[in-house]
Design goal:
Elements: H1 2-24, H2 47-62, E1 65-68, H3 75-86, E2 100-103, E3 121-124, E4 127-132, E5 137-142, E6 148-151, H4 160-178, H5 186-192, E7 195-199, E8 210-215, H6 239-252, H7 256-259, H8 261-270, H9 287-300, H10 304-314, H11 320-334, H12 340-350, H13 356-367, H14 373-376, H15 380-384, H16 387-392, E9 400-407, E10 410-416, H17 420-425, E11 429-438, E12 447-453, E13 460-464, H18 465-468, E14 480-490, E15 497-499, E16 503-508, E17 524-526
Parallel strand pairs: 1-2, 2-6, 5-17
Antiparallel strand pairs: 3-6, 4-5, 4-8, 7-8, 9-10, 10-13, 11-12, 11-14, 14-15, 14-16
Helix pairs in contact: 2-3, 3-4, 4-6, 9-10, 9-11, 10-12, 11-13
Length: 537
């Protein structure tokens, strides 16, 4: 009886709530506000059969089964995927050991700082990089799973260009893994300018195993071009992302063959089997001359859409001189008689440039009432680099990929600062502030220092701790140390200042450890027993 009474009370509450809501909204049955009967939509034909036909067609053309793993494939999703795969050469079809492409709602493993509901796709299985002391070899140990690419719900909300780029980027990872990790080959390591960095565990002992990674070179301004949904330092994160971004660049970015000729030729020979997407320049011009000629031609023709596309290509890397010249070109065009359509389109285009001259261009257009700031900020790219987003979000981002190592007697700190370019464009100086503590020794640092950067940069930063320290110090060896690294952004004219979150790392200085590995590591890939393919290295 008690259970029945509770149900009656609940029904009464539902009736009272729904009745009150209907009256509040004047939703009275039979009135003009009462919703009409929703027409019933019936799919013409057997939807399940149509999905299966598309799945079979996809497998027949590319060799992969489309697997539903908690989320069903839809016809339009399969058609999108088919279009993306149609741009890949046959070398990406039927990759050894990879039979399925999985459809899930979201990634099922911890992605770190990126929210799970924002990750569009992933290549699995995971792997670890180990130096085997006994065998004296650098190894890649692949998890005991068959290779697969997983596609998550956020992917299908991307526009067509981003969708294709993401799918092909993940297939580049799949190609890399199933072909013995070309990204770890001595040839790719050399042409991409990554260096092998040995990373000792805190309790390391001589002749014990340790992990390793590949570290980008801060003196190299441009790694693989990035898509505009990625951070500017994305290709520098690790050598696999550099490889996958290069594959996407080969397909989508017409200037890639000029900005990265060594990468382009490697991919043409080893990945794309000679397939070419963009013809070479008949005049044999360099990248700078070619892109400036194309830019000026687009301006002269008043082709603002093409102007924007060319600017976008430059913004995929770090080319400060080119950016400044392009910003000046935009300023010359908009200095003439006002044209609302032209001025807005070129203002939007300038948001892809991180040269300070581009910000000044937009400010001038606003001051002269040729454009409105509010309309400019409705553009996604302009909003992302705008003042409010910089002050509220970007300026607080902590440095990433922080590592300590010793080289030629120097204590070095290297990290990525993806906000450096935006800060420079907005007129801010950047100061890096570091402190080192000995664990368990109180709150007083044993060493601290800072360095100011006023000219922007490619986002990869290396600090010599001794040269940037406030006073001389000696790091205790064999003891756990904690390093804190933060960023201060200061505007020299209006004196606005913002501090980032702090990044912390723990490390131990081992005097006997060799941090920098060989230039030709000859990495050996160890595949799991489950995989249905074998490689001899």
């Amino acid at each position: 009886m008690k259970k029945t009474a509770n149900i009656l009370v609940l029904l009464c509450l539902i009736f009272v709530f729904c009745g009150a809501k209907a009256q509040d909204e004047e939703m009275i049955p039979g009135s003009e506000n009462w919703p009409k009967k929703r027409p019933y939509y019936e799919y013409p034909g057997d939807y399940g059969e149509e999905v299966q036909k598309l799945m079979d067609k996809f497998k027949g053309e590319f060799g992969y089964e489309l697997v539903e793993f908690g989320e069903a494939w839809r016809t339009e999703q399969i058609e999108q995927l088919h279009a993306a795969f149609s741009e890949l050469p046959p070398t990406f079809h039927q990759l050894p050991g990879m039979k399925g492409l999985y459809r899930l709602s979201r990634i099922m493993v911890g992605p770190g700082q990126v929210p799970q509901n924002e990750i569009p796709a992933a290549m699995l299985p995971a792997f670890i990089t180990i130096h085997n002391a006994e065998a004296k070899t650098y190894q890649v140990l692949v998890n005991n799973e068959d290779p697969r690419v997983e596609f998550y719900t956020p992917l299908f909300y991307e526009d067509t260009d981003n969708f294709k780029n993401i799918v092909q980027h993940e297939m580049a990872h799949a190609f890399d893994m199933t072909q013995g990790f070309l990204s770890f080959s001595d040839e790719w390591v050399a042409l991409s300018k990554f260096r092998l960095l040995n990373m000792p565990p805190l309790d390391a002992k001589p002749d014990s195993n340790f992990i390793y990674t590949f570290l980008n070179d801060p003196k190299v301004d441009n790694y693989a071009p990035i898509s505009h949904r990625h951070l500017p330092t994305y290709s520098r994160q690790n050598i696999q992302e550099d490889f996958a971004n290069s594959v996407a660049a080969y397909i989508h970015y017409p200037y890639f063959q000029y900005t990265h000729p060594a990468r382009y030729q490697f991919l043409k020979d080893r990945v794309f089997a000679g397939k070419v997407y963009f013809p070479a320049d008949a005049n044999g011009r360099s990248f700078d001359k070619l892109i400036l000629a194309d830019f000026k031609q687009a301006l002269n023709k008043k082709d603002w859409q093409q102007t924007t596309k060319i600017i976008q290509e430059v913004s995929r890397g770090y080319y400060p001189k080119l950016e400044a010249e392009m910003a000046r070109g935009l300023a010359e065009v908009t200095a003439g008689e006002a044209s609302e359509k032209r001025d807005y389109e070129l203002a939007f285009a300038s948001c892809y440039l991180q040269a300070p001259e581009a910000l000044e261009l937009r400010k001038n257009l606003i001051r002269q009432k040729q454009i409105e700031a509010g309309k400019v900020l409705k553009n996604e790219r302009c909003f992302r680099i705008g003042r409010d987003n910089f002050q509220r979000n970007l300026a607080k981002w902590a440095p990433a990929n922080v590592v300590f190592f010793r080289e030629e007697g120097r204590d070095l700190l290297q990290f990525l600062d993806p906000v450096l370019g935006v800060a420079h464009a907005r007129g801010y100086n950047t100061k890096y502030i570091w402190r080192i503590f000995a664990e368990g020794a109180g709150t007083k640092p044993i060493a601290e220092g800072n360095v100011m950067v006023a000219e922007g940069g490619n986002g990869s930063v290396q600090l010599d701790l001794k040269k940037t320290a406030e006073k001389n110090f000696v790091l205790p060896e064999g003891r756990k140390l904690i390093l804190e690294l933060g960023v201060n952004r200061l505007h020299p004219r209006n004196f606005k200042m913002f501090d980032s979150e702090i990044t912390k790392i723990g490390f131990v200085v081992h005097p006997w450890f060799q941090y920098i590995g060989p230039e030709q590591p000859k990495v050996h890939v160890v595949y799991p027993l489950r995989a249905s393919y074998k490689h001899q290295n």
